[in-house]
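I'm stuck. Please check this protein.
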Amino acid sequence: MSVSATIKKKLIYEFKPQELQVIDESHLHAGHVGARPEGETHFRLVISSTNFTGKNRIDIQREIYRVLKDELNGPVHALTIKVI
């Protein structure tokens, strides 16, 4: 399973988002630290979930980082999060 597909699967299971976009931006970072030729190292995440109601941005990011702990400790070098 691709890194992108794994991220989507975990986020859907944990947060049941109303909107979810996992965008691989690795091509924009070719040659940078953490980039790999095969990609899937730099992602932009756009997510909306009722699970985030009443939580501040930092708490939401901590929850997302907790769920994606293995990916962030492994193949993912950078993750940008936009909560809508």
The mean pLDDT is 91. The domain at 3-83 is CATH 3.30.300.90 (GMP Synthetase; Chain A, domain 3).
